[in-house]
Amino acid sequence: MQDKQESEKRNFIGGVVHGTFLRSSTRLADIDLILPAFVSSITGSKFLIALLPSIYFSTGRLPQLLFSNYVEPRARKKPFLYAAILIRAFMWFLFGFLVTWKGISNPALVLSLLFTFLLIYSLAGSLGGVALTDIIGKAISGANRARFYATRQITGSLLAFATGFLVRYVLGEGFYFDFPQNYGILFLLSGAALLIGFAGFWLIKEPAGETENRKQLSSYFSDVFTILQSDNEFRIFLMTRVLAGFHIMIIPYYVVYFKEVAGVAESFVGIYLMARVFGGAVSNFLWGKVAKAASEKVILLCLLVAGVTPLIALGVTSLDPLYYSIVFLLAGSAINARMVGFNTQLLELAPEDKRPTYSGIRGTTIALTAPLPFLAGGLIEFFSFKFAFLFVSGVMLAGVIVNFVHQFSGNLFNGS
């Protein structure tokens, strides 16, 4: 019994270290702030800005069904996550080195390399995500999972907040390197943070599962359709996650909106990053407690906050740029609510022997929202930022209503 407790404690610490430095790494090359700011400094194309989250979310999620069929029969999944972390670290090291060394003498080449490396980075993350869900499910007991995810979010947010100070310094006027070398330094640091996360994950002792024969794809997809047909709660979970994707589609455009409409300086990117991280960290104390009692209520609050955020973005442009931080604070809160709520509920819904499959279905469903940033870009190009922001708020409101009715009536989709 004591050995089991010690093992779970070690797994808890290792998983928190991994998640903490993974969070720092993603903030140093943030898909919603750093990369859009980097690309918008090279080109004004909304299409290329939309391509960033589309690649990230599609290749990071869509292949998960295929990967889960390959990973699920294995007794141990850690080698897959090891490979994923090292590949991702190498991508940022390589791109950071090239940008720092060569600069942007050839903008088309730099952007092509960025999108190619992001594609490989996201594919590796897709493989790692399938393995991670099962590893955490086996290594962390059900009673501790909500606390584990909340703790990992809190520590990750604290380090990411400190990372915001670093970003502000690196992108500020007093830094030794100017554009684009300052961004190259951020990409190199992102790779280094992943390696520290690798060391944390190495601490986890993965309990061995049973080795199973790999299913034929036809049989595997038959199981997928059976799950979707029979598991009503999982269908509601997937539909709600798709609705949450409409919030994700607009986040990369907040910084572009403030740069174009209000003329915000580059150095404010670090401040907005800190605001988003701070909002996530503070709100996690609430999300962890709520998720322990009812993860579906965290999801409801996620949709509510996500719906209010674009409206506030429209209302603050006449104020000092520092006040724009409110938008990113709320966005960070909604992002963390989404992570804690959906991750906790997925493990509650998925049978132990089907976790990789459920994770794969979830990931592939999320990938269906990958074109949404292009929708946002199109709405902005053909209409306006205001129209796009109001559209997202409307979708979030619809999600709140559907989710609220389902949670408190329990029969909207049961036909009773």
Description:
There is one protein chain. The chain is mainly alpha-helical and 416 residues long. Helices cover 80% and strands 0% of the residues. The protein contains 17 helices and no strands. It has helices spanning 2-28, 34-40, 46-61, 64-71, 78-102, 107-139, 142-171, 181-202, 217-230, 232-250, 252-262, 268-293, 295-315, 325-349, 355-367, 372-382, 385-409. The chain starts with a helix and ends in a 7-residue tail after the last helix. Residues 411-416 have low confidence and may be disordered.
Features:
416 residues, mainly alpha, 17 helices, 0% strand, globular, disordered C terminus
Summarize the structure.
The chain has helices at 2-28, 34-40, 46-61, 64-71, 78-102, 107-139, 142-171, 181-202, 217-230, 232-250, 252-262, 268-293, 295-315, 325-349, 355-367, 372-382, 385-409.
SSE blueprint:
Blueprint: H1 2-28, H2 34-40, H3 46-61, H4 64-71, H5 78-102, H6 107-139, H7 142-171, H8 181-202, H9 217-230, H10 232-250, H11 252-262, H12 268-293, H13 295-315, H14 325-349, H15 355-367, H16 372-382, H17 385-409
Rg, rounded, reads 21 Å
The low-confidence runs, each spanning 5 or more residues with pLDDT under 50, are 411-416
* Average residue pLDDT: 82
- Globular, elongated, flat, extended or rod-shaped: what is the shape? globular
What is the count of helical runs?
Answer: 17
Largest sheet: none
Based on DSSP secondary structure assignment, what is the total number of beta strands?
A: 0
Order of helices and strands: HHHHHHHHHHHHHHHHH
Cα distance spanning the termini: 46 Å
Helicity level: over 70%
Strand composition percent: under 5%
Secondary-structure content class = mainly alpha
